[in-house]
Amino acid sequence: MEEVVLYLLKLMLVSLMVGLVGLKVMVVLWWRPRKIEDHFSKQGIRGPPYRFLLGNAKELLGLMLKASSKPMPFSHNILPRVLSFYHHWRKIYGATFLVWFGPTVRLTVSDPDLIREIFTSKSEFYEKNEAHPLIKQLEGDGLLSLKGEKWAHHRKIITPTFHMENLKLLIPVAAQQVIEMLDKWCEMADSGEVEIEVSEWFQILTEDIITRTAFGSSYEDGKVIFRLQAEQMVLASEAFQKVFIPGYRFIPTKRNIKSWKLDKEIKKSLVNLIDRRRENSFNQTPENGTKDLLGLMIQASAKESAPSSEITVRDMAEECKSFFFAGEQTTSNLLTWTAVLLSMHPQWQSAARDEVLRVCGPRGMPSKDDVAKLKTLSMILNEALRLYPPVVATIRRAKSDVELGAYKIPRGTELLIPILAVHHDQAIWGNDANEFNPTRFSNGVARAAKHPAGFIPFGLGFRTCIGQNLAILQSKLTLAIILQRFSLHLAPHYQHAPTVLMFLYPQYGAPIVFRRLADPVVNQDQRVLN
Ligand code: HEM
């Protein structure tokens, strides 16, 4: 009898637990989404209706797949192709609408007044959202995703790496790297011209400079570590393109085992490298060379005594990951799109070249002062960042219930800021918003748009991109040296197909034909004549 009672009690307990779990699932997957929809609809905000578990994922994927199924005409009106879901639903629900990524709701915000609130005047109410686990694996637990005090501490330590005074020390070696790349192109250009898939070459170039900023004097060892990280990125991006199964990355599949091994190898190489750097730091003052990420973090780890601000080897490894992820493809994509734009707009290519030849001469290596004088090139790069921003959107999460303009935003709501859409908005940029017109930047970035928050390729506010000086410096240097030596036009089989997988990239590559310009006349003293 006692056993039967015990059995029945157990049964009741299990049923209760199953019931509670079921209830929780229903609350998260059904009741809460309805409540949120209701909350926003009372404020006039609507969107595609929430569907159980999947949200709008199915329609969203369908729209993206359809948009990327064929190339587009040679136009800069790329929003419908790149953020097709945003373009589609904005037409139906207006620019501020709700969209469901599974049971997670996102409110799209493209009004520059509201964007300014989120990033600057009310930024304390918002934080970075939790990235998808696979993205997190790629971007590392560094500056990009850290929050609160730890973020502020790391940002303070790392910032000197990106001071202009520090970056300018990299110019000679970065320029040399570009020249070596172009020498290879010259060798390949038998008949005076060569077709180059620029995205691949620019990636190698960018990786090199990021390695120098991250590892400084330990550049060679750093290169090996970044190679391992690049392999890690390929594995994670492959997984990212498959259906996401929570917890799958802990199962010992072939790919996961490879990824774990790589992780171990990266950590081991970093520990060895850090030990060597620590030993060397006794004989070397940091003023001797550039301030690199690793050096600054090692220095900080030696100083910190409080456990809360301690910098560990893991911290350093995660920051290296963040650097690599945030810096490599963004800058190489900017270079790629600018090369495409210069090829599409030969009159701007000539204007940029004339300026480079005037400032630097036909073969002179651009100095830091020269780079600052290249105004036309700056305007072109800004226009490239506007039309083809490598980061097409960003997300923030409301930390508490908050008022955004006239809207009441409940805690936990994610806000999706479609940078690309803001950059193509006619209300901010005028009727020619989809045209390539670098002249709009002739009076500087602040006066280019009708609203100061209308141009945000590097984000805005205190979490703005730490690497923007480096990205612009490297891009100007690379393009200046290319323009000195080559003219460029699109290969006949180039297909215009901007698309996004983490960053904005050309879906079918960017084949560009480079034609060597005549060598400058050299007089008897071997001096180059302008
Ligand atoms: C054209 C090139 C680049 C573009 C368009 C770009 C864009 C951005 C954007 C939009 C953000 C802000 C994201 C947000 O608010 O959610 C950001 C943050 C960041 N970027 Fe860049 N980036 C570029 C190059 C670089 C480079 C070269 C590095 C480093 C080597 C870098 C490192 C970072 C880091 C660490 C953050 C996080 C900063 C923080 O939260 O404190 N970026 N970037």
Number of domains: 1
The H-level CATH homologous superfamily, spelled out, is: Cytochrome P450
Mean pLDDT: 89
For the record, the CATH architecture stands as Orthogonal Bundle
- Kindly report the CATH topology: Cytochrome p450
Any idea what the radius of gyration is? 26 Å
Describe this structure in words.
- With 530 residues, the chain is α+β, with helices and mostly antiparallel strands.
- The chain has one domain: Cytochrome P450 (Cytochrome p450), CATH 1.10.630.10.
- It contains 20 helices and twelve strands.
- The strands form four sheets. A five-stranded mixed β-sheet has the order 1-2-8-5-3, covered by helices on one side. The protein has a three-stranded antiparallel β-sheet with strand order 4-12-9. Strands 6-7 form a two-stranded antiparallel sheet.
- Helix 10 crosses helix 11.
- The longest helix has 40 residues.
- It starts with a helix and ends in a 14-residue tail after the last strand.
- The C terminus is likely disordered.
- Bound molecules: protoporphyrin IX containing FE.
- Pfam families: p450.
- InterPro entries: Cyt_P450, Cyt_P450_E_grp-I, Cyt_P450_sf, Cytochrome_P450_Monooxygen.
- Keywords: Heme, Iron, Membrane, Metal-binding, Monooxygenase, Oxidoreductase, Transmembrane, Transmembrane helix.
